[in-house]
Here is the input.
Amino acid sequence: MNLKAIIITIIIFNLTILHAQEFKALGLFGMGKPLKLTGNFNTTFLYNYSDFAIATPYTYIVSGDMKISYKSYAMGLDFTYSNAMLKVNYQPIPFNKISVHPHYKYATLHLGAVDMTFSPYSLNGFQFTGAALELKPKKFKLLVLGGKFLKGSGDYILNPNSTPTYSRIGEGIYAGYEFSKLKIAASIFHAKDDSVSAAHIPVEVNILPKENLITNLQADADVTPAFHVVAEFANSLITNNLTSPLPYSGYKWIASLISYNGTTTSKNAINLKANYKFSLVTLGIEYERVDASYLSLGSLYTTNGFENSSATINFSLFKNKLHFNIKEGLQNDLVDTVFSQKSGRLLNNVSITYKPIRKLSFTGNYSNTKSVTNFRNVDNLANANNLIPYYLDSLRLVQLNLNSSIDANYQIKASRTENKTLTANFSYQKGDQKQGNYFVNAQGTLFENGTLNYIVAYPKKDVKWNISLLYTSVIQGADTNTTRGYGVNFNFSKKYFKKRLNLTIGSGFNASSKIGSLETNDVVNFKTNISYLYLKKHSFNVNAVFQTKSTTSINNPYMLNSTIAISLKYNYKF
Here is the structure.
C-alpha cells in the first residue's frame, strides 16, 4: 500500500472518531418524525510485522450499511471497500462492492452488487452486478433478477496471470406461495457466457464458454401434525462449449430452449425428506440424487454424481435425560463406465446426550464411513487385452473413516456472585485404506485431540478468567511421521466504567514435535484486547498480538521468528 493510501486511511479513521458529532445530524431522523435513518459504519486498520518480509503489512477495510425510511418508503445501502485485493490485476467477481435497496411496502429493489438464492441446485448465493426486484405481498413471494455474474478476462496472451473467464450474463425468476400447511415454489435461472469476451485460453485450463438453463420445483408440506414432507426437483440443461462444432443428437425440442450442440446435456437433481413423530420417537427417511456432470452456473461449487439414501431415528429415555440420534445410510457414485470407477459408501452416525443431573452433561458422537471403490484397468481395456478376465484385472479399494468424540460439562458452582465450570473434550479420527485383504498402513491417518478448560466468572465484579490445556497427536502412516503437540493458555477479562470498557489479556505456550525430522516448534504469544462503547452508538476496539516462534530441526539447528499484529476498529451505529 502506498503512502497516499495510508494517509487517507488514517485521516478517515481519525475524522470518524474525532468528529463523530457530524453524524449527530443524522440522529435527528426519527426523533418524532416519520423520517428515520438506521445502520452501521465500520472502519478497520490492520498492521502486521514479521521478521520475514510481508508483501502488504498494512490493510484497511471500510464497510457499512444504512437504511433511510419514510412511512412506507425505505432505501437501503451497503458497501465494502478494502485495499486487500488491489494487488490483483483481475477479479472475475469484484471484492469491493456497493449496493442500494429502495423499499416500499412489500416491494424491494436491489441494485449494485447483489447475491440471491433460489435453491442449492440452482442460483445459490452467487454475487452479481445488476438488479433484483423482490415482492412479498402477504403469503406470496416473487423475485426477478438479472445482471453480470462474471466479467471476461480478455486476451490471455496479454494478461497470462489473470484467471481465465468468459463474461457471463444471467437472469432468473422465482415465485412461491405459502398456504396454511403447504409451501410451494418454482424458479427458472438462465446464464450464458460471451464466447468473444476471452481469447487464447490454453486448452489444458479447460475453461469453455457455457450456457445453462435450470428449472426448479420445491414443496414443503405438513401432511398431518406429526407427518412432515419436503421435496425438491431440479433440471439443468447445459451446453458445455458454445463453440463446439459437434452436432446434437438428443431431443431438440428440449435443447432448443438454449443454444445447443454436441456438448448439450440434460441432468436432474432430486431431494426427498420425510419424518413422522410419534409420542416418544421420531422416524425419518432421506433420499438425494444428483446426476453426474450436473452443473449450475449460478453456484460457485456444485457437488454431483452421487445418490444418498438414509434413515434416522430420534428418541429419549429416562424422562429425557438420555437422548439418541441415529442415522444409517448408503451413498453410491453414479459414474459406472469402462473408463471410470464406481464407489459405494456405508454411512452411519450415532449421537448420544446424557444429563444425569442438572449440573453434569455428556455428549458423544460416533460415525463410521466405509467406502468401496472398484478400479478397472483402463490400459488393458484400451488395448483389448482379453487374456486376463476383467474381474482379475481390477482393484478393489476399501477406505475406512472413523470419527468419535466425547464432551463433558460440569458446573462446579453457580451463584449470583461466582460461577465455576469445568469442560473436557476428546476427539478421535482414523482413516485407513485396504487393497484386497490388506490394509495400506503407510496411507492411514490417526488424529487425536483433547482439551480441558476451567472457567471462573464473578458476575457482580464483571470479572472472568479461564485456563485451558491442549493435547494433539497426528500419525500419518509410519511412526516417523508422528507429530505431537501440547499447550496451555490463559485469558483474563474485566469490565470497567459501567461495563462500557472491556479489557482482555491473555498468553499461551504451545509446543509441537515431529519424530521423523526431529523438528520442534515452541510458540509463545501475548494478546490484549480493549473495547469501549461510547453513547451506545460508538464502538472502539484495539487488538494487539505478539508472538515468537522458535524452530529446531536437523537442517536448521535454531530459527526464531517474531510477529506483531495490531488492529484498530471503529463502529458507528445510528
Q: What stands out?
A: The helical segments are 3-18, 252-255, 378-382. Residues 212 and 238 are 4 Å apart (CA to CA). The first helix runs from residue 3 to 18. The two ends are 31 Å apart (CA to CA).
